[in-house]
Amino acid sequence: MRLKEYEAKNIFRKYNIVVPQGFVVRKESIDHLEDISYPVMLKAQILAGGRSKAGGIKLANNKDELKKELYNIMDKEILGCKVKEVLIEEKKDVSQELYVSCTILRKDRKYALMISDLGGVDIENQSKSVSIVTIDPLLGLQTYHLKTLLAPFRFEPLVQKKIAELLTSIYNIFLETNANIVEINPVGVSGSNVYALDAKVIIDDSSLFNYELSKPKNDNENSFLGVVHQLGLYGGEGDGNIAVLAGGAGRMMATLDLIVSKGGTIRVFMEFGSLVSQISNLKLAMRKLLPVLYNLQDNLQVKVIFFNDFLVLARCEDFATALIEALNQYRFTKIPIVVRLGGNGETRAQEILKNYSGELLLETNLIKACEKVVMFGKGDVYGYSNK
Amino acid sequence: MFMAILINKNTKVIIQGITGRLGTQFASRMCKGNTKLVGGVTPGKGGENVAGIPVYNTIRECVKYKTPDISLIVTPPKTVLGAALEAVDEGINTLVIYTDNVPIHDTIKLINYASNYNVTVVGPGAAGIVTPGQCNVSEILDSLIKPGKIGIISKSGSLCNDVLHFLQNLGFGESTICCFGGGLIVGLRIKELIEHFSKDDETSMIILIGEVGGTDELDALEVIKNCKKPIVSYIAGFFAPPGVRMGHAGAILGEAEDSAKYKSDILNSAGVVTTSTILELFSLLKDMLTSSFISKSI
């Protein structure tokens, strides 16, 4: 889960990283701004990189400019995200910009701490020094790591000390917030002062249990992805017309690949994760997902819904029961539902599904099921009859 | 070199978390099959038994009475680190971590620790490892597999099950199947698994099921080039939109080198027979396995 800039900066403050003075403005508070000294920076609080180039970061020299820019930017869509919050910050004049980060090296299975003097918006177009150390997670950050990292830069002693503290802080934040990455781009240096001008923190999704922040707030709660995320699951959206709900990440990807290769197009997709192992969780998931799918059908955005699972530990009859219970509540009359369900208890599950009085197509062969789904997506209803 | 990779008919298995819902399920399954389940560990439940298998409070107690080779860990995510470190300290050589969603920093710590003691870790988030007819430390149903000559390496358990289902209908069996998980960080990876299968006399061909995201498939390139056995691959996630987590934490398209197509192309140039959908994979396997040339040895 990626944190917004101001959320990340609130964490930074607790670790004694100096960030510019600032506050967050929402639409309703634009006309009640506190008195502040100018100039200030306006920064759209969206979860996307490259905000500056996309018009998500602006400068204001007085209150009128600030209000004008705020009205301009609020509710605007930038990089695919609607702006709901803007961070107002004092503008810092700096003489040097740096990049620092602490990340996981996936291949080496170690940590990497990194500093470079090519900070700013165009790091790819500059070529100065990049300094990286690999840290053994069982050993942790050592003093010599910092010496090695900073040696190429020849900072003033006081600045050097502050940057060493900054690096230590981001390493500690990385560990203590269970982050996948902590990144500051840029760090601003002005005289002997060192500021974090931006902040990027992504918390490991599997570590959110001990985190004070809730699950993603950017989602529209009634959207497909909003519901999927509320259930603690993963999925995505496209601009096609097929809905794929699969069990298992690999099976979901294989299903999507096959459907797309046959000319089908995807509207939404998700996978059930470990929800399938308990009928109560399955019932909850179906109850929440089907109304959203029903709306997508109503708006003519989805032409076919495909449930695809093969269960080895969980029970097919639980899956079927949960599905039918929800289907009895949300009757899909305009579009077909294709179900491929096999494995543990598949015979019993098929009996449950066959007793459903609505329109539902059972297909045990995975390939044939995908082909039928593609056919329905293309609007070809030949061969579609109940059961 | 013993028959099959990593596990065989003599492998003694324990389950950490045996008294839980999952642990009980695994235990009763193993007891019905050929797997030598010798014990289980759940702190505070020592002295009980699950499916007739004794439960111990600690691994040390368990090791004192039994001599396990491999531990299946099915404890809740937050407890996996402690469970795994304990198993390493007590000298267990191989860990299969079935539990998914283990906190990432716990995973990194336990994998580094295990590797320092030459302990093999499969997972976290691994469907597990199974040598049909001999030992099953996985979620894979015994009814879906039989002894054969095909080695299977897969990140995904679910997709592997679909492939096994297909092979079963075709009448072919497997030497060993290893589903090692789709997390951002996992222990045993494709490179080591190809090395194992290369040396295994029971394996005549390898099916490799990869995923979009990371460079795991490409890190194995040299080993793949040196492997004398035919390798057939499908890298799932050709469709994956950039930046979207495709279920597994590791299955996310960042750089161009992460894409299923790029990885497939590179594998292809290294001599792997690559496919871009399971339909292609199935058709290809059918052709290969039913052609008289290869099927003689499989």
What features would you describe in this structure?
The complex is a heterodimer of chains A (387) and B (298). Chain A has helices at residues 5-14, 63-73, 143-150, 157-176, 224-230, 249-261, 279-298, 316-329, 346-354, 366-377; strands at residues 22-26, 40-44, 57-60, 77-78, 81-82, 85-90, 96-105, 110-116, 130-135, 179-190, 193-196, 200-203, 234-237, 242-246, 266-271, 304-311, 337-343, 361-362. By secondary structure, chain A is an alpha+beta fold. In chain A, helix 6 (249-261) packs across helix 10, helix 7 (279-298) crosses helix 8 (316-329) and helix 8 (316-329) runs parallel beside helix 9 (346-354). The longest helix of chain A is centred in the middle third of the chain and has 20 residues, at 157-176. Chain B has 298 residues and is of the alpha/beta class. Chain B has helices at 21-32, 59-65, 80-89, 104-116, 157-170, 190-199, 216-219, 221-226, 260-269, 278-290, 292-295, and strands at residues 12-16, 36-41, 49-50, 53-56, 70-73, 94-97, 120-122, 128-131, 135-138, 147-154, 174-179, 205-211, 231-236, 273-275. In chain B, helix 4 links the parallel strand 6 (94-97) and strand 7. In chain B, helix 3 (80-89) runs parallel beside helix 4 (104-116). The two termini of chain B are 20 Å apart. At the A-B interface, helix 6 and helix 10 of A face helix 1, helix 4, helix 5 and helix 10 of B.
Query: Strands of the biggest beta sheet of chain B: in what spatial order?
Result: 3-4-2-1-5-6-7
What's the CATH architecture of the largest domain in chain A?
A: 3-Layer(aba) Sandwich
Quick check: average pLDDT of chain A?
Answer: 90
Largest interface, chains and sizes = A-B, 49 and 61 residues
Write down the Rg of chain B.
Answer: 19 Å
What's the quick description here?
The complex is a heterodimer of chains A (387) and B (298). Chain A has 387 residues and is an alpha+beta fold. Chain A has helices at residues 5-14, 63-73, 143-150, 157-176, 224-230, 249-261, 279-298, 316-329, 346-354, 366-377, and strands spanning 22-26, 40-44, 57-60, 77-78, 81-82, 85-90, 96-105, 110-116, 130-135, 179-190, 193-196, 200-203, 234-237, 242-246, 266-271, 304-311, 337-343, 361-362.
